[in-house]
Design a protein that fits this description.
heterodimer, A: mainly beta, seven-stranded mixed sheet, globular, B: mainly beta, six-stranded mixed sheet, four-stranded antiparallel sheet, 12 strands
């Protein structure tokens, strides 16, 4: 089945530094990927839609200058948390839609990245 | 706008008993409905989906869900719960094609005890 990977799985950084998270579709191409943030009380919030070759579409209330998204190829999207602060600590999850031609009609999720900002 | 409600924060059930995790949705047009499961510190795993066809959908690990259009519900069920089913369950709705965004419910924690 379709697989989506994320790297790193866990990162700890100092306040003020930037952190890059990678999301890869391993055996299929994804012109669209989604980035979610999961809060401690478990709700999953869509942050942005990453589009290959064009600008990401951010959800209302998400700071595009803080959460930089780049979708440089059909298999890779990156989320960079710039000037991270403790309130950015969270679990970040990406997903990519399955291809209709593969007989699938769902999104495949990465394993998530735990970000801790000290 | 589309939305999903999972009214139960947690569901407790004894192993061997049937379980139900509730989900209601709101969407204009035909809904695409999904259930995902999340284990601690892991991403979401797909369980099952309703796109069209039979209202009763069967998925992974013995789970099933029933689409009820009149009640706008898509409850997740399993005839006999296992301790290993203990996890966080998310219902989600999508309006449109595969590349459309999913809207998730707040999640329901299922706790199965011996």
């Amino acid at each position: 089945g379709a697989v989506v990977s994320q790297h790193p799985s866990r990162v700890i950084c100092k306040s003020g530094t930037s952190v890059k998270i990678e999301c890869r579709s391993l055996d299929f191409q994804a012109t669209t990927m989604f980035w979610y943030r999961q809060f401690p009380k478990k709700s999953l919030m869509l942050m942005a839609t990453s589009n290959e070759g064009s600008k990401a579409t951010y959800e209302q209330g998400v700071e595009k200058d803080k959460f930089l998204i780049n979708h440089a190829s059909l298999t890779l999207s990156t989320l960079t948390v710039t000037s991270a602060h403790p309130e950015d600590s969270s679990f970040y999850i990406c997903s990519a839609p399955g291809l209709a031609g593969r007989g699938t009609d769902t999104q495949y999720f990465g394993p998530g990245t735990r970000l801790t900002v000290l | 706008a589309q939305s999903v409600a999972q009214p139960e924060d947690q569901v407790n059930v004894a192993e061997g008993n049937p379980l139900t995790v509730k989900c209601t949705y709101s969407v204009s047009g035909n809904p695409y409905l999904f259930w995902y499961v999340q284990y601690p510190n892991r991403g979401l795993q797909f369980l099952l989906k309703y796109i069209t066809g039979d209202n009763l959908v069967k998925g992974s690990y013995g789970f099933e869900a029933e689409f009820n259009k009149s009640q706008t519900s898509f409850h997740l069920k399993k005839p006999s719960a296992l301790v290993s089913d203990s996890a966080l369950y998310f219902c989600a709705v999508r309006q449109g094609g595969t590349a459309s965004k999913l809207t998730f419910g707040t999640g329901t924690r299922l706790q199965v005890t011996l």
